[in-house]
Amino acid sequence: MSKILSPLVIGLLVMVVILIGTFAARTMRRLLPQGDLTEETKSLVSVSMAVVATISALVLGLLISNANNSFIALGGQVTSLSAQIIRLDQILRRYGPDTEPAREILQRYAEQKSEDLFPGDNARALPRLGNPSTYERLQQLEDALLALKPANARDQWWLGQATTLAAKIGDARWILAQQVGQGTPKAFVALLVFWLTLLFSSFALFAPPNFTSAATLTLCALAVSGAVGMILELEQGLGGLIHISPEPMRHAVMVLRDLPDVALGSH
Predict the structure, then answer these.
(1) Burial degree of 169 (CB within 10 A; 0-12, 13-18, 19+)
(2) Which pLDDT belongs to residue 259?
(3) Rounded mean pLDDT of 213-218?
(4) pLDDT-derived band at 205, boundaries 50, 70, 90
């Protein structure tokens, strides 16, 4: 969805559109002749809208499931990235003191990457997945690894493991950048909103003109628009009201800083 409109704003707009259609149908009810509001007409509208209601319910359920799966996958990618950073630091530690420059670069990279993914304490701040300075830091780490001169087969093995992990960390950067923002197409969301508006309009057309029916339709519109907003929030994953946990990356940074309160053995 558009970067200008947040999922919350889009959800509110969806609610407004549905309510406009709903109360327009209530107004139309008073203008239509009684011959158009017979039981036969009501039955026809009910049967027709049952098809739309079924399709809308199936699509909403599918979108929520897909958005949730995308959210979980994104969280898994961040957790995997943090684990790879910790493992790479442990391997470099095992290699020996020659890797101290590389470990310092890795620590700075982890700090920058954590800040890029979770900028400060502002839940609405946008992540900087394509930050060129962070990618440059990763390239410096790769150069530092390539500059190492293994003295024996043991060092050679550790260096091979380190370069493999560094490559995986680089892959994770591009996977995260490509995965975020690949949400439901705008046209599909617009079609879903049209279905919902049509459905609520049919409810209002034959609903009794009293406060209870109006309040019920309004609350139901709030519920379905909230579902649309939830879908968009889950698809966004980072920088929204609902976002993945920053704790794995923060934990990785603490491990690389050798903070005493981090319970992690050097295995």
Answers:
(1) buried
(2) 54
(3) 92
(4) confident
Helix (H) or strand (E) holding 150, with range, is none
Q: Which among 140, 159, 165, 196 is positioned nearest to 17, based on CA atoms?
A: 196
CA distance 190 to 187: 5
- Domain limits of the chain? 7-29+40-119+126-256
89-123 pLDDT, tens digit per residue, is 999 999 989 999 999 999 999 999 999 888 865 54
- Token pair of 20, please? 């406009």
- Contacts for 217-220 with beta carbons within 8 Å, 24 or more apart? 217/19, 217/22, 218/19, 218/22
CA torsion 260-265-266-267 (nearest 10°) is -170
Residue 262: the pLDDT is: 47
In angstroms, the CA 70 to CA 73 distance is: 5
Q: 241 near 233, Cβ under 8 Å?
A: yes
